[in-house]
Amino acid sequence: MPVAMITGGSKGLGRALAGALAGEGWDLVLDARTAGVLEETARELRGRYGTRVVAVPGDVTDAAHRADLVAAAGSLGGLDLLVSNASVLGAEPLVRLDALPLEGLRRALETNVVAALGLVQEALPSLRASEAGAVVVISSDAAAEPYPTWGGYGASKAALDQLAAVLGEEEPGLRVWAVDPGDMATDLYAAAVPEDTDARPSPESVAPAYLRLVRERPAGGRYAAPALLEGPAGQGGGAR
């Protein structure tokens, strides 16, 4: 069975992607900081789909934890897909740049960019050995559009997009996709803009867009999940 690693896999989009891949027969390595919630997710997926799911609690900013994740994938036979989903906002709720704590910006860059690259570096030997190695990084429209209060988070996602683009050039044997999922009803969005009570799509409604990438393996680049759900796979922007 193919093996996927998903960071931030205990809830929200990470959990939705885990369920979608498990339903397609993938074995999984899941990461999250809260061990109890992560183990509950892993048990549910094992019971529902009968797939192998290894839960590795920890923080992706910890190099030892990243090594443990790759080792866990090795115990399942290797690694075919790395989904870099773990993210932090840098401030909760989001604030204007003139009020953004610099420590919060550092935390966002460390988690959303530095740790993501560190995990790619750790996982590259396994991904290169796969016949269908792929990397997905979770982007945001805030990486490309100047939304007030989204500056710090958006800057981190813009940096992640550029890393993904360069990785795709440097590793032509892999598929590397940056995917903007669009607006979703997640804890992250609620923490970012708690006063926004409008109904938003569930992460589960977005997951098929990611499955389409994995199945069809279009050229590497930046994609918007809503566009992938509506028509031919094509690169472009999307929503936060």
Automatic annotation (TrEMBL):
InterPro entries: NAD(P)-bd_dom_sf (IPR036291), Sc_DH/Rdtase_CS (IPR020904), SDR_fam (IPR002347). It holds the Pfam family adh_short. It comes from the Bacteria. Keywords: Oxidoreductase. Belongs to the short-chain dehydrogenases/reductases (SDR) family. This is Oxidoreductase. It comes from Streptomyces rubiginosohelvolus. The lineage of its organism: Bacteria, Bacillati, Actinomycetota, Actinomycetes, Kitasatosporales.
